[in-house]
Amino acid sequence: MNNRLKVLRAERNWSQADLAGRLQVSRQSVNAIETGRFDPSLPLAFKLARLFERPIEEIFTDEA
Amino acid sequence: MLGCNLKNPAMRHYVIRIVIAMTVYAALLPATIVTLQLTHPQRAIVLALSILPSIPIIAVLVIVGLYLKEETDEFQRMLLQQSLLWGMGCTLAFISIWGFLEMFAHVRHLPLFYVFPIFWLFGGISRAIQRTKYRSGDE
Hints:
The complex is a heterodimer of chains A (64) and B (139).
Chain A: E1 2-3, H1 5-11, H2 16-23, H3 27-34, H4 42-52, H5 56-59, E2 60-61
Antiparallel strand pairs in A: 1-2
Chain B: H1 9-39, H2 43-51, H3 54-70, H4 74-105, H5 115-133
């Protein structure tokens, strides 16, 4: 799954550590999601959506 | 097998519990050996004493289970679950191969209590590979 996390994060001038702190996960987790190596669960995806004030489908896009 | 970020409450609990379990193990094992050597107790007591050092070892499994229950970071949970599975799979493969080697090639007998450290060894190797695979590239 592709995502726009890096762009959304850059718009807010947040580091991965900043985002990780806001999500209460490790920076390694944010990195794995951002680079598409780990797909978050629905609850975490909703948390990201609330944090960036965007619908989930604007953050994550299906590769197909 | 786990990384050690003590700011994470689940990890902090895990480390404290492991230290306690290992301290109990470090005390029980020599105490059992010395007791059995010096007292030559009855069979039932020998059986009970022999089982004693395995209690903190079993506790380690429970502690890992508690960590998985308490860890709120789903990615970290997934990493540990993967390394546990690799640890189990590799251990089963290793002891199966060793078992046949013992039976047919008469290699040295491997005492069963080595299975647990072998499991953690393979799990640890798996964790090291994961660290390389998921090494943070950005920032």
